[in-house]
Amino acid sequence: MNKPLYVLNGPNLNLLGTREPEIYGSATLSDVENMCRKRASEFNYEIDFRQSNHEGELVDWIQEAREKASGIIINAAAFTHTSVAIHDALKSVSVPKIEVHISNPATRESFRHTSFVAPASTSVVAGFGINSYDLAILGIVRILQAV
Ligand code: CA2
After folding, report:
1. Is 45 part of the annotated catalytic residue set?
2. Which domains does the chain have, with CATH numbers?
3. Which residues contact 53 (CB under 8 A, 6 or more apart)?
């Protein structure tokens, strides 16, 4: 049995589907979770899907993934642009790590143009709406199958 894929979500993503549909669409985080589980099951992976508004909790989960996960898909949300702690935690993990964004931060405000997650990640998927998560699962499975 494969270890699960951790799908970690940062601050305010629990509110997905409740505002700014022009940027983030109308699907909820629960819809994203269901999509991830469905896709991962095609490849015999389970999903451990979590969301936190707290930086330290995300750091704890990344550390936990060192032993317990096959790989990490992370939308660190606003912490993407601020968190050295999440960067350092990801650096300590040797499993594949995919940075995901629903929007494309590069086309938005300049404060979103810096990512502390990207330099500590294997790959980045952004700008496909919630399908970014689906593409990240397809990508991480390819990486894991090549190992
Ligand atoms: O595009 C993404 O996935 C982001 O990670 C979303 C973050 C933003 O700070 C990043 O720059 C890009 C925002 C997460 C909050 O999302 C909400 C969506 C709808 C309603 C409320 C919050």
Report:
1. no
2. 5-146 (3.40.50.9100)
3. 10, 11, 12, 14
